[in-house]
């Protein structure tokens, strides 16, 4: 079966995701951008990365009706860039996602939706509510990126390869209240908590939360980490391979939460989210996750 992967927003992130899909001959890609020239330019450039053995191609457009055959739609569009906080442009991003939800509802009501644009938890919530799509087909992708950052810091601090680290998950908001879960993580089978002290734990939490600010000391914005994490989800959907990752979905009682979308561990397959996974958290993690869901809910209610 052939799929069409459509990516709305061909900026840094959208183009990087498109590049990975095309270079790995995953499937056909459509880049849709507000300014058509950018979609055309990026797709012309990325087209030269199509492997000679690939059956697939890429094209650019600004016409939403061309989304009609899409099986997977990635939303990486952004009207403005934030400088201090991911929720800085919340009103204009929510207005944007509502408009995009209307278009997607009109042209491809069966697609699986991956929301990348910031703030992803809030936008996932508004997309799902606005479109009426099954909550299992609308995912915010960000906690897997935050988890990559968690693995990176564990690896650097303990001088171990990332391949020796298991279950290092970051849950909750893709924002300052995100919650790295130490109690479940292990290195070569040994619980992470027994390998570090409170000072290291606190500094890791701060480093993961502040990663994007550190990165911006050196380049304008991140793109490759989120691109690879999104590519992995698309790959799992297209190849019907089960993938366990944290992602943001609208919760109906899971983890004690309602009327909010936040990063929790899920299984993904060809149909979208196939299972919400329940993991044990310690007392302080439960408390931090509660604070994180409150932060997202407050943001939702502020719009
Ligand atoms: N989830 C995560 O972990 C994560 C990680 C990194 C970034 N992000 C977020 O991902 C988003 C994209 O980042 P970026 O660095 O790629 O931004 P960018 O380079 O500014 O690209 C955004 C693109 O969206 C386009 N756009 C705006 N409104 C649109 C609409 N209604 N329909 C179609 N295209 C539209 C813009 O078009 P124009 O050419 O007309 O301006 C621009 O090309 C941002 O919200 C960013 O904060 C999330």
Keywords:
303 residues; alpha/beta; Rossmann fold; 21% strand; globular; binds NADP nicotinamide-adenine-dinucleotide phosphate
Task: Describe the overall structure.
It is a single chain. This protein has helices spanning 12-23, 36-47, 90-107, 120-131, 143-158, 198-209, 211-215, 224-238, 283-302, and strands at 4-8, 28-32, 58-61, 72-75, 112-115, 138-140, 165-166, 169-171, 179-181, 186-187, 190-191, 243-252, 258-269, 272-276. The strands form 4 sheets. A 6-stranded parallel beta sheet has the order 3-2-1-4-5-6, sandwiched between helices. With 303 residues, the chain is of the alpha/beta class. The chain contains 9 helices and 14 strands. The mean pLDDT is 97. 40% of the residues lie in helices and 21% in strands. It is globular and about 55 Å long. The chain has a domain at 5-140: Rossmann fold. Strand 8 and strand 9 form a beta hairpin. NADP nicotinamide-adenine-dinucleotide phosphate binds next to helix 1 and helix 3.
């Amino acid at each position: 079966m052939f799929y069409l992967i459509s990516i709305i927003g061909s900026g840094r992130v959208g183009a990087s995701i498109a590049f990975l899909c095309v270079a790995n001959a995953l499937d056909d890609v459509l880049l849709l951008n507000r300014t058509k020239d950018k979609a055309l330019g990026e797709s012309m450039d990325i087209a030269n990365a199509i492997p000679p053995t690939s059956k697939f191609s890429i094209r650019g457009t600004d016409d939403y009706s061309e989304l009609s055959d899409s099986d997977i739609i990635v939303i990486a569009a952004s009207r403005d860039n934030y400088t201090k906080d991911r929720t800085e442009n919340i009103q204009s991003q929510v207005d944007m996602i509502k408009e995009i939800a209307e278009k997607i509802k009109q042209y491809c009501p069966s697609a699986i939706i991956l929301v990348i644009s910031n703030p992803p938890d809030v936008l996932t919530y508004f997309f799902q509510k606005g479109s009426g799509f099954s909550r299992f087909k609308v995912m915010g992708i960000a906690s897997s990126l935050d988890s990559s950052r968690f693995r990176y810091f564990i690896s650097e601090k303990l001088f171990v390869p990332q391949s020796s680290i298991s279950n290092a998950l970051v849950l909750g908001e893709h924002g300052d209240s995100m919650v790295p879960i130490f109690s479940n993580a292990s290195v070569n089978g040994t619980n992470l908590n027994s390998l570090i002290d409170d000072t290291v734990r606190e500094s890791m939490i701060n480093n993961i939360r502040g990663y994007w600010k550190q990165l911006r000391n050196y380049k304008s914005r991140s793109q490759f980490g989120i691109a690879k994490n999104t590519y992995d989800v698309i790959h799992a959907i297209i190849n019907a391979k089960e993938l366990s990752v944290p992602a943001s979905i609208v919760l109906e009682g899971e983890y004690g939460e309602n009327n909010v979308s936040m990063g929790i561990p899920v299984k993904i397959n060809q149909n979208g989210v196939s299972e919400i996974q329940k993991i044990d958290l310690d007392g302080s993690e439960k408390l931090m996750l509660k604070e994180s869901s409150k932060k997202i809910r407050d943001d939702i209610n502020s719009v």
